[in-house]
Amino acid sequence: MSDAPELPKKEEEEVSSEPEEQSEDSSEEEFVGDTDMDFLRSLFSNTLGLGLAEKVLDDLTLEGVARYINAGKCKNVICMVGAGISTSAGIPDFRSPGTGLYANLQKYNLPYPEAIFQIDYFKKHPEPFFTLARELYPGQFKPTICHYFMKMMKDKGLLKRCYTQNIDTLERVAGLEGNDLIEAHGTFHTSHCVSSCCRKEYTLDWMKEKIFSDEIPKCEKCSSLVKPDIVFFGEGLPARVFSSVKKDFPCCDLLIIMGTSLQVQPFASLISRVSKTCPRLLINMEKAGEASPTLGFLGFGGGMDFDSEKAYRDVAHISSCDDGCLALADLLGWKAELEELVKKEHARIDIQDEKKNEPSGESKGAAAKASSASADAPAKAEE
After folding, report:
1. Residue 69 is inside which H or E element, if any?
2. Beta strands 186-193; 226-230: pairing state
3. Is 34 annotated as a binding residue?
4. Does 185 participate in catalysis according to the annotation?
5. Looking at 166-313, which runs of residues are DSSP E strands?
6. What's the chain's average pLDDT?
Protein backbone atom coordinates (compact mmCIF):
# COMPACT_ATOMS: atom_id res chain seq x y z
CA MET A 1 0.00 0.00 0.00
CA SER A 2 1.76 3.29 -0.46
CA ASP A 3 0.32 6.24 -3.04
CA ALA A 4 -8.79 15.26 -22.87
CA PRO A 5 -8.57 14.40 -26.50
CA GLU A 6 -8.66 10.68 -27.07
CA LEU A 7 -5.55 8.96 -28.32
CA PRO A 8 -5.77 7.03 -31.57
CA LYS A 9 -6.29 3.46 -30.41
CA LYS A 10 -6.10 0.07 -32.02
CA GLU A 11 -8.68 -2.40 -30.88
CA GLU A 12 -6.08 -5.02 -30.06
CA GLU A 13 -4.30 -2.58 -27.77
CA GLU A 14 -7.33 -1.65 -25.68
CA VAL A 15 -7.35 -2.79 -22.09
CA SER A 16 -10.86 -3.64 -20.98
CA SER A 17 -12.04 -2.02 -17.79
CA GLU A 18 -13.98 -5.19 -17.00
CA PRO A 19 -12.27 -7.70 -14.72
CA GLU A 20 -11.29 -10.96 -16.33
CA GLU A 21 -13.08 -14.11 -15.27
CA GLN A 22 -10.05 -15.66 -13.58
CA SER A 23 -9.70 -14.96 -9.88
CA GLU A 24 -7.45 -12.24 -8.52
CA ASP A 25 -5.41 -14.88 -6.66
CA SER A 26 -4.73 -16.90 -9.80
CA SER A 27 -3.83 -13.73 -11.72
CA GLU A 28 -1.33 -12.69 -9.07
CA GLU A 29 0.19 -16.18 -8.78
CA GLU A 30 0.61 -16.35 -12.54
CA PHE A 31 2.16 -12.89 -12.55
CA VAL A 32 4.68 -13.77 -9.82
CA GLY A 33 5.51 -16.96 -11.71
CA ASP A 34 6.20 -14.92 -14.84
CA THR A 35 8.42 -12.59 -12.82
CA ASP A 36 10.40 -15.58 -11.51
CA MET A 37 10.99 -16.75 -15.07
CA ASP A 38 12.02 -13.24 -16.18
CA PHE A 39 14.62 -13.16 -13.41
CA LEU A 40 16.00 -16.60 -14.28
CA ARG A 41 16.30 -15.68 -17.95
CA SER A 42 18.08 -12.45 -17.01
CA LEU A 43 20.40 -14.30 -14.59
CA PHE A 44 21.45 -16.91 -17.13
CA SER A 45 21.75 -14.33 -19.90
CA ASN A 46 23.99 -12.05 -17.85
CA THR A 47 26.09 -14.90 -16.46
CA LEU A 48 26.73 -16.39 -19.90
CA GLY A 49 27.07 -13.03 -21.61
CA LEU A 50 24.17 -13.79 -23.94
CA GLY A 51 21.64 -11.42 -25.44
CA LEU A 52 23.40 -8.19 -24.57
CA ALA A 53 20.88 -5.38 -25.00
CA GLU A 54 21.28 -2.53 -27.43
CA LYS A 55 21.88 0.93 -25.98
CA VAL A 56 19.15 3.22 -27.28
CA LEU A 57 19.98 6.44 -25.38
CA ASP A 58 22.96 8.47 -26.57
CA ASP A 59 23.51 9.67 -23.00
CA LEU A 60 22.21 8.43 -19.64
CA THR A 61 20.85 11.84 -18.66
CA LEU A 62 17.56 13.70 -18.82
CA GLU A 63 18.90 15.37 -21.97
CA GLY A 64 19.48 11.94 -23.50
CA VAL A 65 15.90 10.92 -22.72
CA ALA A 66 14.59 14.17 -24.25
CA ARG A 67 16.55 13.61 -27.46
CA TYR A 68 15.18 10.06 -27.62
CA ILE A 69 11.60 11.35 -27.33
CA ASN A 70 12.12 14.23 -29.77
CA ALA A 71 13.60 11.82 -32.32
CA GLY A 72 10.19 10.15 -32.47
CA LYS A 73 11.56 6.85 -31.19
CA CYS A 74 8.87 6.23 -28.59
CA LYS A 75 5.10 6.13 -28.94
CA ASN A 76 4.25 3.84 -26.03
CA VAL A 77 5.35 5.57 -22.84
CA ILE A 78 4.30 3.96 -19.56
CA CYS A 79 4.37 5.97 -16.34
CA MET A 80 4.65 4.29 -12.95
CA VAL A 81 3.83 6.75 -10.19
CA GLY A 82 3.57 6.84 -6.41
CA ALA A 83 2.72 9.21 -3.57
CA GLY A 84 5.61 11.54 -4.40
CA ILE A 85 3.75 13.03 -7.37
CA SER A 86 1.00 14.32 -5.05
CA THR A 87 3.00 15.77 -2.16
CA SER A 88 3.13 19.24 -3.76
CA ALA A 89 -0.69 19.14 -3.83
CA GLY A 90 -0.64 18.90 -0.04
CA ILE A 91 -1.15 15.14 0.26
CA PRO A 92 1.49 13.51 2.50
CA ASP A 93 3.41 10.51 1.28
CA PHE A 94 3.66 7.44 3.48
CA ARG A 95 7.25 7.08 4.61
CA SER A 96 8.98 10.48 4.80
CA PRO A 97 10.37 10.88 8.35
CA GLY A 98 8.39 13.40 10.37
CA THR A 99 6.01 14.47 7.58
CA GLY A 100 4.88 11.15 6.10
CA LEU A 101 1.46 9.68 6.79
CA TYR A 102 2.79 6.83 8.92
CA ALA A 103 4.70 9.29 11.13
CA ASN A 104 1.52 11.19 12.03
CA LEU A 105 -1.02 8.52 12.96
CA GLN A 106 -0.52 8.50 16.74
CA LYS A 107 -3.83 10.30 17.25
CA TYR A 108 -5.71 7.23 15.98
CA ASN A 109 -4.41 4.96 18.76
CA LEU A 110 -3.43 2.25 16.29
CA PRO A 111 -1.49 -0.86 17.37
CA TYR A 112 0.96 0.04 14.55
CA PRO A 113 0.69 2.59 11.68
CA GLU A 114 -0.05 0.13 8.87
CA ALA A 115 -3.10 -1.19 10.75
CA ILE A 116 -5.17 1.69 9.39
CA PHE A 117 -4.91 0.06 5.95
CA GLN A 118 -5.29 -3.59 6.99
CA ILE A 119 -8.57 -5.20 6.01
CA ASP A 120 -9.01 -7.30 9.17
CA TYR A 121 -8.41 -4.30 11.43
CA PHE A 122 -10.72 -2.14 9.30
CA LYS A 123 -13.63 -4.57 9.62
CA LYS A 124 -13.36 -4.45 13.41
CA HIS A 125 -12.34 -0.81 13.82
CA PRO A 126 -13.39 1.26 10.75
CA GLU A 127 -13.40 4.61 12.59
CA PRO A 128 -9.67 5.50 12.18
CA PHE A 129 -9.73 4.90 8.44
CA PHE A 130 -12.81 7.03 7.85
CA THR A 131 -11.42 9.82 10.03
CA LEU A 132 -8.26 9.79 7.93
CA ALA A 133 -10.31 9.54 4.73
CA ARG A 134 -12.08 12.79 5.61
CA GLU A 135 -8.70 14.55 5.80
CA LEU A 136 -7.42 13.11 2.52
CA TYR A 137 -10.68 12.81 0.57
CA PRO A 138 -10.54 13.39 -3.21
CA GLY A 139 -11.86 16.76 -4.34
CA GLN A 140 -9.92 18.82 -1.80
CA PHE A 141 -6.67 18.94 -3.78
CA LYS A 142 -5.54 20.10 -7.21
CA PRO A 143 -3.41 17.99 -9.58
CA THR A 144 0.27 18.87 -9.74
CA ILE A 145 2.59 19.80 -12.60
CA CYS A 146 3.52 16.12 -12.74
CA HIS A 147 -0.11 15.06 -13.25
CA TYR A 148 -0.55 17.56 -16.07
CA PHE A 149 2.73 16.48 -17.68
CA MET A 150 1.24 12.99 -18.03
CA LYS A 151 -1.95 14.54 -19.44
CA MET A 152 0.18 16.40 -21.99
CA MET A 153 1.90 13.17 -23.00
CA LYS A 154 -1.54 11.68 -23.56
CA ASP A 155 -2.61 14.65 -25.70
CA LYS A 156 0.55 14.28 -27.78
CA GLY A 157 -0.15 10.60 -28.43
CA LEU A 158 2.78 9.31 -26.37
CA LEU A 159 1.17 7.86 -23.23
CA LYS A 160 0.37 4.17 -23.38
CA ARG A 161 -0.81 3.93 -19.78
CA CYS A 162 -0.28 5.33 -16.31
CA TYR A 163 0.14 2.75 -13.55
CA THR A 164 -0.47 4.48 -10.23
CA GLN A 165 -0.14 3.43 -6.61
CA ASN A 166 -2.13 6.48 -5.55
CA ILE A 167 -5.73 6.51 -4.36
CA ASP A 168 -6.24 10.29 -4.53
CA THR A 169 -7.82 10.22 -8.06
CA LEU A 170 -5.76 13.28 -9.11
CA GLU A 171 -4.79 11.54 -12.35
CA ARG A 172 -8.51 11.53 -13.25
CA VAL A 173 -8.95 15.17 -12.19
CA ALA A 174 -6.03 16.10 -14.46
CA GLY A 175 -7.80 14.52 -17.43
CA LEU A 176 -6.63 10.91 -17.62
CA GLU A 177 -9.59 8.61 -18.19
CA GLY A 178 -10.37 5.03 -17.20
CA ASN A 179 -8.58 3.48 -20.16
CA ASP A 180 -5.50 5.62 -19.56
CA LEU A 181 -5.15 4.42 -15.96
CA ILE A 182 -4.33 1.30 -14.05
CA GLU A 183 -5.07 2.14 -10.42
CA ALA A 184 -2.97 -0.65 -9.00
CA HIS A 185 -3.87 0.02 -5.38
CA GLY A 186 -7.48 0.81 -6.12
CA THR A 187 -9.38 4.08 -5.96
CA PHE A 188 -11.93 6.14 -4.05
CA HIS A 189 -13.81 6.50 -7.34
CA THR A 190 -16.16 3.64 -6.39
CA SER A 191 -17.02 1.75 -3.20
CA HIS A 192 -18.53 -1.65 -2.42
CA CYS A 193 -20.19 -3.42 0.45
CA VAL A 194 -17.62 -5.65 2.14
CA SER A 195 -20.06 -8.57 2.44
CA SER A 196 -19.15 -11.23 -0.11
CA CYS A 197 -22.86 -12.09 -0.38
CA CYS A 198 -23.83 -8.53 -1.29
CA ARG A 199 -21.05 -6.40 -2.87
CA LYS A 200 -23.47 -3.57 -3.69
CA GLU A 201 -21.65 -0.70 -5.43
CA TYR A 202 -21.74 2.93 -4.30
CA THR A 203 -20.61 6.14 -5.97
CA LEU A 204 -17.94 8.65 -4.99
CA ASP A 205 -20.62 11.20 -4.05
CA TRP A 206 -22.48 8.70 -1.85
CA MET A 207 -19.33 7.82 0.04
CA LYS A 208 -18.34 11.48 0.38
CA GLU A 209 -21.69 12.37 1.92
CA LYS A 210 -21.32 9.60 4.52
CA ILE A 211 -17.73 10.44 5.40
CA PHE A 212 -18.33 14.18 5.80
CA SER A 213 -21.45 13.65 7.91
CA ASP A 214 -19.35 11.61 10.37
CA GLU A 215 -21.24 8.42 9.55
CA ILE A 216 -19.63 5.02 9.23
CA PRO A 217 -20.86 4.01 5.74
CA LYS A 218 -23.24 1.05 5.94
CA CYS A 219 -24.80 -0.84 3.07
CA GLU A 220 -28.39 0.15 2.34
CA LYS A 221 -29.12 -3.42 1.31
CA CYS A 222 -27.54 -5.57 4.04
CA SER A 223 -26.18 -3.08 6.66
CA SER A 224 -22.58 -4.32 6.30
CA LEU A 225 -19.66 -1.89 6.10
CA VAL A 226 -19.04 -0.14 2.78
CA LYS A 227 -15.39 0.40 1.85
CA PRO A 228 -13.87 2.52 -0.93
CA ASP A 229 -12.31 0.31 -3.60
CA ILE A 230 -8.77 0.92 -2.43
CA VAL A 231 -6.58 -2.11 -1.88
CA PHE A 232 -5.88 -2.76 1.79
CA PHE A 233 -3.10 -4.94 3.14
CA GLY A 234 -4.53 -8.45 3.06
CA GLU A 235 -6.41 -7.91 -0.22
CA GLY A 236 -5.33 -8.89 -3.73
CA LEU A 237 -4.67 -6.35 -6.44
CA PRO A 238 -7.39 -5.92 -9.07
CA ALA A 239 -7.24 -8.62 -11.75
CA ARG A 240 -7.05 -5.85 -14.37
CA VAL A 241 -3.57 -4.95 -13.14
CA PHE A 242 -2.08 -8.30 -14.15
CA SER A 243 -3.92 -8.65 -17.46
CA SER A 244 -2.93 -5.10 -18.42
CA VAL A 245 0.74 -5.59 -17.55
CA LYS A 246 0.94 -8.52 -19.97
CA LYS A 247 -0.41 -6.37 -22.81
CA ASP A 248 1.27 -3.06 -22.08
CA PHE A 249 4.81 -3.68 -20.87
CA PRO A 250 6.17 -5.76 -23.80
CA CYS A 251 5.47 -2.86 -26.19
CA CYS A 252 6.68 -0.10 -23.84
CA ASP A 253 9.46 1.99 -25.41
CA LEU A 254 10.04 4.38 -22.47
CA LEU A 255 9.26 3.72 -18.80
CA ILE A 256 9.02 6.84 -16.61
CA ILE A 257 8.95 6.14 -12.86
CA MET A 258 8.03 9.06 -10.59
CA GLY A 259 7.52 9.62 -6.89
CA THR A 260 7.78 6.06 -5.64
CA SER A 261 10.22 4.28 -3.36
CA LEU A 262 9.65 1.04 -5.31
CA GLN A 263 9.39 -0.82 -2.01
CA VAL A 264 5.89 -2.27 -2.32
CA GLN A 265 5.47 -5.52 -4.23
CA PRO A 266 4.28 -6.58 -6.70
CA PHE A 267 4.07 -3.00 -8.05
CA ALA A 268 7.82 -2.46 -7.71
CA SER A 269 8.58 -5.53 -9.82
CA LEU A 270 6.85 -3.99 -12.85
CA ILE A 271 10.09 -2.22 -13.77
CA SER A 272 11.43 -5.63 -14.87
CA ARG A 273 8.52 -6.25 -17.25
CA VAL A 274 9.73 -3.98 -20.06
CA SER A 275 12.13 -5.25 -22.72
CA LYS A 276 15.89 -5.05 -22.22
CA THR A 277 16.15 -2.25 -24.78
CA CYS A 278 13.52 -0.05 -23.11
CA PRO A 279 15.00 3.03 -21.40
CA ARG A 280 13.88 3.65 -17.82
CA LEU A 281 13.79 7.16 -16.32
CA LEU A 282 13.42 7.69 -12.58
CA ILE A 283 12.32 11.15 -11.37
CA ASN A 284 12.47 11.03 -7.60
CA MET A 285 13.97 12.68 -4.52
CA GLU A 286 16.34 9.73 -4.16
CA LYS A 287 17.46 6.74 -6.18
CA ALA A 288 15.06 3.81 -5.95
CA GLY A 289 14.67 0.37 -7.44
CA GLU A 290 18.38 -0.34 -7.77
CA ALA A 291 19.41 -3.94 -8.33
CA SER A 292 19.53 -6.03 -5.16
CA PRO A 293 20.75 -9.63 -4.95
CA THR A 294 18.25 -10.32 -2.17
CA LEU A 295 15.27 -9.09 -4.19
CA GLY A 296 16.60 -10.88 -7.22
CA PHE A 297 16.62 -14.28 -5.57
CA LEU A 298 13.14 -13.63 -4.21
CA GLY A 299 11.95 -13.37 -7.78
CA PHE A 300 11.89 -9.60 -8.16
CA GLY A 301 14.77 -9.12 -10.54
CA GLY A 302 15.37 -6.45 -13.13
CA GLY A 303 16.57 -3.77 -10.70
CA MET A 304 17.73 -0.39 -11.97
CA ASP A 305 21.42 0.21 -12.74
CA PHE A 306 22.33 3.88 -12.75
CA ASP A 307 26.03 3.93 -11.94
CA SER A 308 27.86 0.73 -12.80
CA GLU A 309 30.11 0.26 -15.82
CA LYS A 310 27.38 -1.93 -17.34
CA ALA A 311 24.68 0.77 -17.05
CA TYR A 312 23.15 1.34 -20.46
CA ARG A 313 19.50 2.41 -20.18
CA ASP A 314 18.60 3.64 -16.66
CA VAL A 315 18.55 7.36 -15.86
CA ALA A 316 18.04 8.89 -12.40
CA HIS A 317 16.99 12.54 -12.23
CA ILE A 318 17.10 13.48 -8.55
CA SER A 319 14.59 16.23 -7.88
CA SER A 320 10.97 16.73 -6.93
CA CYS A 321 8.57 15.25 -9.46
CA ASP A 322 7.27 18.67 -10.48
CA ASP A 323 10.77 20.08 -11.03
CA GLY A 324 11.78 16.97 -12.97
CA CYS A 325 8.73 17.18 -15.23
CA LEU A 326 9.32 20.89 -15.83
CA ALA A 327 12.96 20.20 -16.69
CA LEU A 328 12.01 17.44 -19.13
CA ALA A 329 9.24 19.58 -20.62
CA ASP A 330 11.77 22.39 -21.14
CA LEU A 331 14.13 20.05 -22.97
CA LEU A 332 11.23 18.84 -25.12
CA GLY A 333 10.10 22.38 -25.93
CA TRP A 334 6.86 21.93 -23.97
CA LYS A 335 7.53 24.04 -20.86
CA ALA A 336 5.44 27.09 -21.75
CA GLU A 337 2.60 24.86 -22.91
CA LEU A 338 2.73 22.83 -19.69
CA GLU A 339 2.76 25.93 -17.48
CA GLU A 340 -0.20 27.36 -19.37
CA LEU A 341 -2.10 24.07 -19.03
CA VAL A 342 -1.54 24.01 -15.27
CA LYS A 343 -2.61 27.64 -14.92
CA LYS A 344 -5.75 27.15 -17.01
CA GLU A 345 -6.81 23.93 -15.31
CA HIS A 346 -6.23 25.26 -11.79
CA ALA A 347 -8.34 28.33 -12.66
CA ARG A 348 -11.09 26.05 -13.98
CA ILE A 349 -11.05 24.01 -10.77
CA ASP A 350 -11.24 27.19 -8.68
CA ILE A 351 -14.31 28.34 -10.63
CA GLN A 352 -15.95 24.94 -10.17
CA ASP A 353 -15.26 25.05 -6.44
CA GLU A 354 -16.75 28.55 -6.18
CA LYS A 355 -19.90 27.37 -7.93
CA LYS A 356 -20.19 24.39 -5.61
CA ASN A 357 -19.90 26.65 -2.59
CA GLU A 358 -22.44 29.19 -3.83
CA PRO A 359 -25.77 28.99 -1.97
CA SER A 360 -28.71 27.62 -3.92
CA GLY A 361 -31.58 29.87 -5.03
CA GLU A 362 -33.59 29.15 -1.89
CA SER A 363 -30.54 29.73 0.30
CA LYS A 364 -29.82 33.02 -1.46
CA GLY A 365 -33.40 34.14 -0.85
CA ALA A 366 -33.25 33.21 2.82
CA ALA A 367 -29.91 34.99 3.19
CA ALA A 368 -31.31 38.13 1.55
CA LYS A 369 -34.34 38.15 3.87
CA ALA A 370 -32.09 37.65 6.90
CA SER A 371 -29.84 40.49 5.75
CA SER A 372 -32.86 42.77 5.21
CA ALA A 373 -34.32 41.93 8.59
CA SER A 374 -30.98 42.60 10.21
CA ALA A 375 -30.71 45.99 8.48
CA ASP A 376 -34.25 46.97 9.59
CA ALA A 377 -33.74 45.99 13.20
CA PRO A 378 -31.93 49.16 14.38
CA ALA A 379 -34.48 51.43 12.69
CA LYS A 380 -37.37 49.61 14.37
CA ALA A 381 -35.56 49.75 17.67
CA GLU A 382 -35.18 53.56 17.29
CA GLU A 383 -38.92 53.91 16.53
Report:
1. helix 62-70
2. antiparallel
3. no
4. yes
5. 181-183, 186-193, 201-203, 226-230, 254-258, 280-284
6. 80
Query: Under 8 Å CB-to-CB from 110, ≥6 apart: which residues?
Result: 116, 121, 128
Measure the N-to-C terminal CA separation of the chain; round to a whole number of Å.
69
- Check whether 18 has a pLDDT greater than 60: no
How far out from the chain centre does Cα 63 lie?
A: 26
- For 92-140+186-230, which CATH superfamily applies? SIR2/SIRT2 'Small Domain' (3.30.1600.10)
CATH number 3.40.50.300 is the correct assignment for the domain at 43-89+144-185+240-358: no
Distance of alpha carbon 64 from alpha carbon 324, whole angstroms: 14
Q: Is 141 within any annotated ligand binding site?
A: no
79 is in an annotated binding site: no
Tell whether residue 85 is among the known ligand binding residues: yes
- Mean pLDDT score, 99-118: 71
Q: Are 139 and 352 in contact (CB under 8 A)?
A: no
Q: What is the mean pLDDT of residues 246-270?
A: 93
Contact 24, 237 (CB under 8 A): yes
The answer to whether 251 is annotated as binding is: no
Quick one: pLDDT at residue 7? 32
**pLDDT (tens digit per residue) in 301-336:** 458 999 988 899 999 999 999 999 999 999 999 999
**Residue 132 pLDDT exceeds 90:** no
pTM: 0.76
Mean of the pLDDT values across residues 54-76? 93
The answer on whether 222 is annotated among ligand-binding residues is yes
Confidence band of 73 (pLDDT split at 50, 70, 90): confident
Q: Where are the domains of the chain?
A: 43-89+144-185+240-358, 92-140+186-230
Q: One of 185, 192, 317, 346 is an active-site residue; which one?
A: 185
